[in-house]
Design a protein that fits this description.
binds zinc ion; alpha/beta; 479 residues; nine-stranded mixed sheet; Alkaline Phosphatase, subunit A
């Protein structure tokens, strides 16, 4: 018993006040507490997850679910089973430039300024007249009026990397890398090779040269590569004559593979705190091939030989996107929270409702959202999530304040306790990246005309009686 009593010197000193004989103990304890508090604070700071935002334009849950049921799409399946998902509500006319810029800024297009595919040349504030083509140019990074996630996070000292997002050319300075949307041949005539000399395709500028060998051009797409998506007999027409669907496939396939290869190489050099990569293939293929996947929705008889050739094209593109997703997941650090998002879903458009006969799929208001990683709830479904919520959620996860003027919210219910910590607020984010003053020549590129051609082909500009290629608006809120 006595020895036990003797082993309790701490009790004695704890009873003492700091000014007396326990002073040294007291100082030591205070110092210890300070060290513990500091290291907890530091751990909290440094244990913030990395974020990977994967944008899949036009990804549609109904296609993903039915393919998962058939045992396909193992990586999407993993995200659904192990993560939190939602029907992500889009807004407005669900046009990609508007919505993607909302996803990465948290702002309505009236605020972020990217309100269509094109703008009037010579005026960065005025929306282009959709019926007039001569003086229109595709939207550029110079037309965005608010900072994007990569700007905000760069300014806060995080490393960032972004690949392929809408309206990112000319590439702006970030604390990491930026590969702009003009780096690939994405929305471009396959003959438009002049863009090889286009400036500001990447930040830093010299990165473009280092990545040049990764560009897949549409005319390099081989019959063997096409065979995974359509029957062997199909050949691409000369797409300058018409916007045939095989040429559209070649272009979007080339873009998807280019950004996939770029993403892999840049991730292999080291994953930034915030990584974001955009893929367009599912959207373009869904526009042009829907009636072959679901001929019963076509509102006309689809020739059997077309069904043979293209019946599997959309699902093949989802399989490819799933493989790409898997290859990215393999590269991410263990502490990465992955957010897969689409700007809208997809649905069939019957023949008599089309403004362009070959465009058989159009946007549905609700797209895909899947959040996956450490601290993300498993098998959870959010009932209320929108494209406005992505930026606030990413900021909160990375320990940065959410701006009060963002209309979305942090998707708190997707995360286990302690993942988010206290959510700080700031009035507004309005610091833009530092760039040279705008020069008209800086935002016109040799491939502008080819890009406009393609937008016209898909019905995004000047395609129908209503001037926008749309006979129907994308849908009601419960769509
Ligand atoms: Zn889209």
């Amino acid at each position: 018993m006595t020895s036990v009593e003797a082993d309790k010197p701490n009790n004695t000193s704890r009873d003492s006040s700091c000014g007396t004989r326990g002073g040294r103990w007291c100082v030591a304890l205070v110092l210890l507490a300070a060290v513990v508090a500091l290291s907890l604070w530091w751990a909290n700071r440094t244990q913030r997850p990395k974020i990977a935002l994967i944008g899949i334009d036009g990804a549609e849950w109904s296609v993903i679910w039915s393919m998962i049921e058939r045992g396909e799409l193992p990586n999407f399946d993993r995200l659904v089973r192990e993560g939190t998902t939602a029907q992500c509500e889009s807004y407005g006319q669900t046009m990609s430039p508007q919505v993607w810029n909302t996803i990465v800024t948290g702002k309505h297009y009236l605020e972020h300024g990217i309100d269509w595919f094109v703008v009037k040349a010579g005026d960065v504030t005025e929306k282009g007249d959709l019926e007039e083509d001569e003086d229109l140019i595709p939207v550029t990074s110079r037309h965005r009026r608010v900072p994007a996630l990569w700007d905000i996070l760069s300014q806060a000292g995080h490393t960032v990397g972004a690949i392929g997002f809408w309206a990112t050319w000319p590439a702006t300075p970030v604390n990491g890398f930026m590969v702009s949307d003009r780096f690939s041949y994405s929305r471009v005539n396959k003959l438009a090779s002049a863009h090889d000399n286009l400036l500001h395709q990447t930040y830093p500028a010299e990165l473009a040269e280092e990545l040049r060998d990764l560009i897949v051009t549409p005319d390099s797409v081989s019959p063997a590569q096409r065979r995974d998506f359509m029957s062997e007999s199909v050949q691409a027409d000369d797409w300058r004559k018409n916007h045939d669907i095989v040429s559209e496939f070649d272009i979007t396939y080339a873009q998807t593979e280019t950004y996939h290869r770029v993403a892999q190489r840049l991730l292999d050099r080291g994953q930034p705190d915030f990584f974001a990569c955009y893929f367009q293939g599912v959207d373009v293929i869904s526009h042009y091939f829907w009636e072959f996947m679901q001929p019963e929705t076509a509102g006309r008889t689809v020739p059997p030989e077309r069904l043979d050739s293209f019946g599997d094209t959309i699902e093949a593109m989802y399989r490819r996107q799933d493989t790409i997703l898997g290859e990215l997941l393999e590269r991410f650090d263990d502490d990465t929270i992955v957010i897969v998002v689409s700007d809208h879903g997809f649905r069939p458009v019957p023949f008599d409702k089309r403004s362009i006969p070959t465009v058989s799929g159009w946007h549905r208001l609700h797209g895909v959202l899947a959040i996956w990683g450490p601290g993300v709830k498993s098998g959870m479904t959010l009932t209320d999530a929108s494209v406005f919520d992505i930026t606030p959620t990413v900021l909160a996860l990375m320990g940065e304040p959410v701006a009060k003027d963002m209309q979305g919210r942090v998707l708190e219910e997707a995360f286990e306790e302690g993942v988010l910590g206290a959510i700080d607020l700031v009035a507004v984010y309005d610091r833009m990246p530092e760039q040279a003053p705008i020069n008209e020549a800086d935002i016109q590129s040799p491939m502008d005309q080819a890009m406009l051609e393609r937008l016209r082909g898909i019905g995004y500009i000047g395609g129908g009686e209503d001037g926008a290629g749309l006979i129907e608006q994308p849908g009601t809120p419960d769509d």
